[in-house]
């Protein structure tokens, strides 16, 4: 159910931003890309996961497994988009007069493209070295996705170098982006504290708290999975954490980042009304 809701909700947001010219702004361009990423991300794991649950044959080809691993690692794009969204919010709150000139559509699209390209280039080398390892039978992955930990367990020979390099690469990306987000929200909170209106402060704190909750959920789960070496995480915990950030987090992100936004809800209602009018004709 959460899978269907995530697909419908994020798909509606992408179409709303594309069709409603009133929200053709950097903030909503980032939201649309974030929603599109969530659709791609959840489709790399959930369909195969559901097929395994409903079928007695639970197999995946070697090539398909590593393709899933690669596109699953593309979730790193989200790690790059979240700091952009935090920085955009910082500019909107802390630099409102300069915001229109700093964040133009051209710059926004270039930064988004940079996020996608960087994510595509981060993991091909580690994945290539993992594919070169000798794998012993039985070729059974004790997981519902092809992830580094379960794959390295199947190797005939220990690969501490590959495991450590994957952990260091993940740690570097996660900590740099996390501290950038933390810095942006710190400046936002400092600005909000200076707002004279108590109602304005409460509204800003509520919005900031919601966004921080999403960031904490996402970063908390990926830190548990990828910062410490994979051998240190019990398989049961790996499965639970993977399930949370691959299935639950996209739905929570949808509710917090998009559907609670007033302009976005207005755009979605407009699309809904146009759909009803078209159907009545």
UniProtKB/TrEMBL annotation:
Bilayer-spanning residue ranges: 28-46, 66-87, 107-130, 168-192, 204-228, 240-259
Pfam family of the protein (one): 7tm_4
This protein's record includes keyword Glycoprotein: yes
Membrane topology designation: Multi-pass membrane protein
Protein's UniProt keywords contain NAD: no
Subcellular location, record wording: Cell membrane
Principal localisation: membrane
A GO CC term assigned to this protein in UniProt: plasma membrane
PROSITE patterns: G_PROTEIN_RECEP_F1_2
Example of a GO MF term: G protein-coupled receptor activity
Keywords of this entry: Cell membrane, Disulfide bond, G-protein coupled receptor, Glycoprotein, Membrane, Olfaction, Receptor, Sensory transduction, Transducer, Transmembrane, Transmembrane helix
SUPFAM superfamilies named in the record: Family A G protein-coupled receptor-like (SSF81321)
Domain G-protein coupled receptors family 1 profile: 9-257
PANTHER family hit by this protein: G-PROTEIN COUPLED RECEPTOR, OLFACTORY RECEPTOR
Name used for this protein in its record: G-protein coupled receptors family 1 profile domain-containing protein
């Amino acid at each position: 159910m959460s899978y269907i809701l995530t697909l419908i909700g994020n798909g509606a947001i992408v179409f709303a931003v594309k069709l409603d010219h009133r929200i053709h702004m950097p903030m909503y361009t980032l939201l649309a890309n974030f929603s599109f990423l969530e659709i791609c991300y959840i489709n790399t794991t959930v369909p195969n996961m559901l097929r395994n649950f409903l079928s007695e044959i639970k197999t995946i080809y070697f090539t398909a497994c590593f393709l899933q691993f690669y596109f699953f690692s593309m979730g790193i794009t989200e790690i790059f988009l979240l700091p952009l969204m935090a920085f955009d919010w910082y500019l909107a709150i802390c630099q409102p007069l300069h915001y229109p000139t700093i964040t133009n559509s051209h710059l926004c699209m270039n930064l988004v493209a940079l996020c996608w390209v960087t994510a595509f280039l981060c993991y091909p080398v580690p994945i290539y070295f993992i594919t070169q390892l000798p794998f012993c039978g039985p070729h059974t992955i004790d997981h519902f996705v092809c992830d580094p930990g379960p794959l390295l367990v199947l190797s005939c020979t220990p690969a501490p170098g590959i495991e450590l390099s994957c952990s260091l690469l993940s740690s570097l990306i996660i900590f740099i982006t996390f501290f950038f987000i933390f810095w942006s929200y710190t400046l936002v909170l400092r600005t909000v504290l200076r707002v004279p209106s108590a109602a304005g402060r409460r509204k800003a704190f509520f919005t900031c708290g919601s966004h921080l909750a999403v960031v904490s959920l996402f970063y908390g789960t990926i830190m548990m999975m990828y910062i410490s070496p994979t051998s240190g995480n019990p398989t049961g915990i790996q499965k639970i954490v993977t399930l949370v950030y691959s299935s639950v987090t996209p739905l929570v992100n949808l509710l917090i980042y998009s559907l609670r936004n007033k302009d976005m809800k207005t755009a979605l209602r407009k699309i809904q009304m146009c759909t009803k009018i078209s159907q009545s004709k």
